Amino acid sequence: MIRLSQNSSLAGKFPANNWTSPIEYFSELPDSIGNLKLLGTLMLGYSQFVGPVPASLGNLTQLTLLHLMHNNFSGHIPSSLSNLVQLTCLDLSSNSFVGEIPDIVNLTQVSFFDLSNNQLAGSIPSHGSRLQNLVLIRLNNNSLSGTKPSWLLSLLLLEYVRLSDNQLSGHIDEFPSKSLQNICLSNNRLQGSIPSSIFELVNLTDLQLDSNNFSGIVEPYMFAKLIKLKNLYLSHNSLSLGNTFKIDSPFPKFSYLSLSACNISAFPSFLRTQDELSYLDLSEKKIDGQIPSWISEIGKDYLSYLNISHNFITKMKQIAWKNIGYLDLRSNLLQGPLLVPPSSLRVILILNKQFTREIIHSLCDIIALDVLDISNNRLSGTIPECIGNFSP
To answer: SUPFAM superfamilies, per this entry (predicted)?
Structure first.
């Protein structure tokens, strides 16, 4: 086993030939590393290695664990890594690898596969159905394109899949695997309706589909079986959100809920059950009229982030959340004085053109404030001295 992880101050070079001598300097991996044919574990993560990964690494056929993450490796990922048929964990994340993902069909023992945060391009390999032991795959933050291969979400043991921040396109197939817990497909070019099988994934805790081109209607009753779901991101698609909901129906308790730019004209009634919310984004919708009185029950003891900007809201009652830190009310039709905000606020954004001078004085009870934007209103009079007392 060789483990040099998390030594960011190491510098120099590996020995070119004699690996039995003391290792004093590190920088690039030499071809001679391929001579360590009995090596089972190689952990070089979180260091400052540079340059390409030598193809000779593929000679280490006894490797079960290969960690090269968070370095400055560059160039192509060697195709010879497909020889590492004993690998159970491959982590090459957060480097500067380019080119396409090499053939992975022989890595039948791998359960953890992470190539995220590189500069990889091309499509995801189309042949991977033999990876029956795969539990986690991360390919996010690359420049991958093409369609998602059908084998990827059909693996029976797969629990975690993260393909966000790429250029993937096309429709999503159905999800036959019931083991999935975390699905992140955000910031791609995926389209079509959300597969109905997603709403059968009873172990799902995190679903992130935001910033794609998904369309269709999502009804609250569809989530009845997803009782474990905590984080839901559907923002910035072409989705319409239905509002038919029975208060006593089974429904998940969300922690994070992002529905920005979904097609909806009223506050979703299912929010009345969401007393554990800490993050809520309902911005860029068509919500009009007054904020309902029951909204203060949403995440009453937990809500720290609320964004209801860019709507047509006309009235808001007392802000009741004692732990709210970020409040965005910009671009609504709110008018008159704003009631006293809680002292926990650190960011408040209110650009409405209708508020009167009372808003300034109500801010004096805030203990610490990082951002205050109350521009484009109808404020007058003097600025109270308390504005100068805010401290981050």
So the answer is: L domain-like
User: What confidence score (pLDDT) does residue 77 get?
Assistant: 98
State which residues of the chain have pLDDT below 50.
10, 12, 19-25
CATH of the domain at 319: 3.80.10.10
The answer to whether residue 111 is domain-embedded is no
Give CB contacts under 8 A, 24+ apart, made by 197-205.
199/223, 199/224, 199/225, 199/226, 200/175, 200/225, 201/175, 201/177, 201/226, 202/178, 202/226, 202/227, 202/228, 203/159, 203/178, 203/179, 203/228, 204/180, 204/228, 204/229, 205/181, 205/229, 205/230, 205/231
Residue written as token pair 């990922």: 77
Cα distances from 80 to residues 34, 38, 61, 103, 129, in angstroms, run: 11, 17, 10, 9, 20
Query: Which residues span the domain enclosing 386?
Result: 266-391
pLDDT, position 237: 97
Does 203 reside within a domain?
A: no
State the total domains in the chain: 1
Is residue 253, in this structure, part of any structural domain at all? no
| In-domain check, residue 283 | yes
Residue that is written with structure tokens 């009185």 in the block: 293
Residue 24 pLDDT: 41
Looking at residue 361, its pLDDT comes to 60
